């Protein structure tokens, strides 16, 4: 799927991050190619969440280099990564339950009305925000959510995930990172979220998917990045490898035959 | 399991369908989206009940506007308190900030000989500064708001007495040198209705805050911070800035209440308004704003303050022991919080 001739849109080389005596990242590499779904798997404590935090700006690596579109970048906060076009769907979703769907979509980047009302009275442009939110939700086939003004806490777990994904997809210029998007969901809702991931991919955005759920990973991923002991130990093609072999590599029970060309 | 999810994914587009609601859930949902509905209903019903019991003596323009005059100070202070409580905080120092500001206004006008308007500005500045101190302690030192304002309540209260030397400025002196301090105590009549400018001020402040909470990004951020601080941070809200601004605005509003207080009681007294923090929290809670933050409205608070006013005056006209008012208000607080808990359970 991913064309090796292409330049990675997001890459990292030799990332190191230490917490006291613990080395969370030990010369970790990372590559994400345009238009692909890259799954990142790894045992608990393997350092995959530190890796993801490093590329989403939540953690500043001690050493190493991150490049976005070939340009070196140094994020010191998630806001900077966001401004650079990298959106993250956090496991906790980072939604505000009491606010409406459209208020949540625009949280922290609200649109103000034009002219006096916006400049002097700082009035929000609700109709525009609602129109845009509705459009983005429809793009992802989520318009069964009837009322864009309803509070997020009245939605089901899957619907909330949908809103968080739609928010990321609406504002991500380059990359979407999704942290365990199906962890809290039942089988049926998980299936719908996987469908959402495919929809986002169809629109050309590359996705980094962190998941513990092997069936989900093997269902949607184009490539699987296997993380072990703080570094990338292998990148495998899910069509040519079984989930149990991937788990064997992940846990160290099996040696990766060949590190797929990065 | 993998086949199952595949099948679910292929057979249908992502459609997260709504399920049917029972009647009780519908009520719950309605109250959830209209937090001011409960206090409004209680206000209307209690007014009607008192009108039936007491008759025209209660149900007259004069009496009803008298209630407004009596709740003006609490109404203003509790508007500021609402902002703080919406961020899942609490401000125990509101009454102390109010009295300190009023004392500063009095001292500036009487002892330093400043012109009235300058004295007022000095008082407003001191109130805002007190609020900023609260905000800095909450946002940067990361102390619980209860502890911060428990401390500053004592500090601002003591500062008031030390600064004023426990001295009261007499009403006649104020009229002679700085009548502007009495501005919000002046009244005007429309028919039998008597309004003070303090009542008008309360309504104007509530209207401004209603607008700010519902139609500006600041207001949305305030709700989001109260709802879930971590989520707000991840969404790119500058939480510390929101918190400091909220406590600062609360301080400013309390200073405005201090100005109104001078008009209401005539003199400047460091002894005034000792229970105002409790009155304000009571109005906010009865008004349906959740102490856990993120839920509530300024309109609800206004209704909450009015409910207390209706019960106080109504029970006094009925001729009961004033303790019955305290008892009723206490019961209302408990019912209000219980209702909030129930409404909060809305999910899925």
TrEMBL record, chain A:
Matching entries from Pfam families are given as: ABC_tran
- MF terms per GO, please? ATP binding; ATP hydrolysis activity
SMART domains on file: AAA
InterPro entries linked to this entry: AAA+_ATPase, ABC_carbohydrate_import_ATPase, ABC_transporter-like_ATP-bd, P-loop_NTPase
Keyword field:
ATP-binding, Nucleotide-binding
Annotated ranges, domain ABC transporter:
10-254
Q: Which residues form a coiled coil?
A: none
Q: Which domain of life does the protein's organism represent?
A: Bacteria
What name is this protein filed under? Sugar ABC transporter ATP-binding protein
From TrEMBL, chain B:
Query: Which GO CC terms are listed, alphabetically?
Result: plasma membrane
Predominant cellular place of this UniProt entry's protein:
membrane
Q: What keywords are annotated for this sequence in UniProt?
A: Cell membrane, Membrane, Transmembrane, Transmembrane helix
Name the membrane topology term: Multi-pass membrane protein
TM annotation in the entry: 36-54, 85-106, 118-140, 146-164, 190-213, 242-262, 298-318
InterPro entries listed in its UniProt record? ABC_transp_permease (IPR001851)
Localisation: Cell membrane
One Pfam match? BPD_transp_2
Q: What CDD domains does this protein's entry cite?
A: TM_PBP1_transp_AraH_like
Q: Which residues form the signal peptide?
A: none
Q: Name one GO molecular function term.
A: transmembrane transporter activity
What name goes with this protein?
Answer: ABC transporter permease
Name the source organism.
Pararhizobium mangrovi
Q: Taxonomic lineage per UniProt?
A: Bacteria, Pseudomonadati, Pseudomonadota, Alphaproteobacteria, Hyphomicrobiales
């Amino acid at each position: 799927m991913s064309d090796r001739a292409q330049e990675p849109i997001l890459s990292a080389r030799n990332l190191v991050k230490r917490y006291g005596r613990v080395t969370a990242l030990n010369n970790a590499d990372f590559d994400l190619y345009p238009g692909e779904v890259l799954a990142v798997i790894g045992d608990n404590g393997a350092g995959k969440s530190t890796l993801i935090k490093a590329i989403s700006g939540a953690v500043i690596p001690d050493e190493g280099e991150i490049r976005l579109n070939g340009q070196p970048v140094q994020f010191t906060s998630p806001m900077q990564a966001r401004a650079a076009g990298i959106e993250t769907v956090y496991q906790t979703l980072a939604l505000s339950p009491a606010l409406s769907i459209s208020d949540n979509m625009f949280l922290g980047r609200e649109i103000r009305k034009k002219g006096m009302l916006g400049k002097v009275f700082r009035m929000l442009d609700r109709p525009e925000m609602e129109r845009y939110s509705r459009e983005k939700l429809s793009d992802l086939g989520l318009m069964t959510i009837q009322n864009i003004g309803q509070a997020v806490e009245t939605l089901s777990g899957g619907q909330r995930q949908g809103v968080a994904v739609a928010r990321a997809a609406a504002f991500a210029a380059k990359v979407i990172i999704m942290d365990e998007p199906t962890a809290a969901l039942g089988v049926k809702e998980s299936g719908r979220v996987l469908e959402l991931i495919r929809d986002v991919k169809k629109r050309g955005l590359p996705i980094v998917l962190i998941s513990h759920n092997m069936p989900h990973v093997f269902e949607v991923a184009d490539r699987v990045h296997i993380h072990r002991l703080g570094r990338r130990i292998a990148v495998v093609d899910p069509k040519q490898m079984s989930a149990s072999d991937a788990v064997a590599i992940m846990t160290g029970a099996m040696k990766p035959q060949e590190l797929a060309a990065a | 399991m993998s086949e199952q999810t595949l099948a679910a994914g292929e057979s249908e587009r992502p459609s997260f369908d709504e399920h049917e609601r029972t009647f009780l859930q519908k009520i719950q949902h309605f109250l959830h989206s209209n937090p001011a509905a409960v206090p409004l209903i209680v206000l209307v019903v209690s007014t009607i009940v008192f009108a039936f019991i007491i008759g025209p003596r209660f149900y007259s323009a004069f009496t009803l506007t008298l209630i407004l005059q009596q709740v003006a100070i609490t109404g203003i202070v509790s508007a500021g308190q609402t902002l703080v409580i919406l961020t899942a905080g609490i401000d125990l120092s509101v009454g102390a900030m109010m009295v300190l500001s009023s004392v500063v206004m009095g001292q500036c006008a009487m002892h330093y000989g400043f012109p009235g308007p300058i004295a007022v500005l000095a008082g407003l500045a001191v109130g805002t500064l007190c609020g900023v101190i609260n905000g800095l302690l909450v946002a940067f030192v990361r102390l619980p708001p209860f502890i911060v304002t428990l401390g500053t309540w004592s500090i601002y209260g003591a500062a008031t007495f030390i600064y004023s030397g426990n001295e009261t400025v007499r009403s006649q002196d104020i009229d002679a040198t700085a009548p502007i301090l009495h501005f919000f105590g002046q009244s005007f009549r429309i028919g039998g209705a008597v309004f003070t400018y303090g009542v008008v001020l309360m309504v104007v402040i509530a209207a401004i805050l209603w607008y700010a909470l519902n139609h500006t990004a600041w207001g949305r951020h305030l709700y989001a911070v109260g709802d879930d601080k971590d989520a707000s941070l991840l969404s790119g809200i500058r939480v510390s800035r929101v918190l400091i601004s909220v406590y600062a605005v609360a301080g400013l509003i309390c200073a405005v209440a201090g100005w109104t207080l001078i008009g209401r009681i005539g003199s400047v007294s460091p002894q005034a308004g000792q229970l105002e923090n409790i009155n304000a929290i009571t109005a906010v809670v009865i008004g349906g704003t959740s102490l856990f933050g993120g839920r509530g409205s300024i309109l609800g608070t206004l209704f909450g303050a009015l409910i207390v006013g209706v019960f106080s005056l109504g029970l006094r006209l009925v001729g009961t022991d004033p303790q019955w008012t305290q008892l009723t208000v206490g019961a209302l607080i408990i019912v209000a919080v219980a209702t909030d808990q129930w409404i909060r359970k809305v999910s899925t």
